[in-house]
Amino acid sequence: MTVTSQREPTPAPTALTIRLLDGFSVVVDGVVLRDADLANRRARTLLKLLAVEHGHRVSVNRVIDVLWDEAPPRRAADNVAVLVSRLRRVLGADTVVGGRTGYALAGEPLVQVDVTHAQRLVGEAETRLAANQAGLASAAAAAAMELLGDGVPLAEDDLDWLMPLRIQVGTLLSRARHTAADAALRTDDFSVGQRAAEAALGADELDEVAARQLMLVHVRMGEPARALVVYETLRAVLSDALGVEPAAQTREVYLAVLREQQVELAPQDCVAAAPATSGSGLVGREQEIATLSAAWSHAVSGTPTLLLVTGEAGIGKTRLIAELAGL
After folding, report:
1. Is residue 297 within 8 Å of 271, Cβ to Cβ?
2. What span, in angstroms and rounded, lies between the C-alpha atoms of 292 and 282?
3. Residue 108 and residue 16: Cα distance in Å, rounded?
């Protein structure tokens, strides 16, 4: 009689969450995995890459470049396949999809990534504010700011391929702070508005939207002198860094404070709702839609952005732009 031993297959998780914003962690059905559970450093790096590119298939060549840089092993694609098999054993067979041409994490609701959740919260905050629901906007913006933390995802990793993610998260945090400050001004919650505007200025001392919001907060608190200090500080920073004066909208707020006139936010500072991405008919293009939506939102708020959409012929560039136009 022959007795064989078979490994029990890993049951499919009911909830898999990957956190990138407050350090890297993986939560399976409410249990945080240990680093050792993910096999080795390269397996963890592979999972980070797939999470950063959630919703997109990552080519094997890209995976090899990230994992081994300029010194890949002879059978690098085979090594990647082994790493994927290890991840599937730990996380569930359906969590990583694809094959030898490329791999991706499964979509929601099976796999959730905190950056995507933060995107939804910021979008909800902006939508609520545009609908004059300042209280709900404030709540969504506060939740987004708490989730986004200091705006530096995977801070423990000093890797070039993380730069686009860090720019994306920094932009999300800036939008959340602007929305929080605007909502606070509408509800006369000046302490919240001051913290949000000061945090935005602390992250980017050239942020004129945040400077105008902070000036208005000080005026509403009966501190016009502090509003003037904010302006003079901004003017000095812009002069030193760029050799320019503050924008016309900022000068208008400054002059209104000097003349003791009523001060309101410029129309460009009132956050407009970004196009919702959840209703998009495009599958696997959530990140591109989110990037274009963010640029749209910034353009409406007075900060034009130039984006170049590139890709192979027939990959869907025209469809992507048409989808955004229809949102």
Report:
1. yes
2. 14
3. 9
Given a contact cutoff of 8 angstroms between Cβ atoms, the answer to whether 216 and 264 are in contact is yes
**Number of residues written out for the chain:** 327
pTM comes to 0.76
CA distance 2 to 19: 45
Tokens in use for 196?
A: 């949000």
Supply 15's token pair. 């909830």
CA–CA gap between residue 204 and residue 178 (Å, rounded): 12
Domains of the chain: 16-109 (1.10.10.10), 113-269 (1.25.40.10), 286-325 (no CATH)
Give every strand in the sheet of 25-28, ordered side by side: 31-32, 25-28, 16-19, 111-113
pLDDT, one tens digit for every residue, the chain (327 residues): 444 434 445 555 568 999 999 889 999 988 999 988 887 999 999 999 999 999 899 999 999 999 998 788 889 999 999 999 999 999 998 999 999 889 999 999 899 999 999 999 999 999 999 999 999 999 999 999 999 999 999 988 888 899 999 999 999 999 999 999 999 999 999 999 999 999 999 999 999 999 999 999 999 999 999 999 999 999 999 999 999 999 999 999 999 999 988 887 765 565 544 444 444 455 556 666 666 665 654 454 445 567 777 766 556 666 666 655 544
Label residue 169 left, alpha or beta by phi (over 0 means left) and psi (-120 to 50 means alpha).
alpha
How far apart, in whole angstroms, are the C-alpha atoms of residue 31 and residue 29?
Answer: 6
**H helix or E strand, kind and range, residue 240:** helix 224-242
* Torsion angle, alpha carbons of 108, 113, 119, 125, to 10: 90
Please name the helix (run of DSSP H) or strand (run of DSSP E) that holds residue 175, with its range, or none: helix 163-186
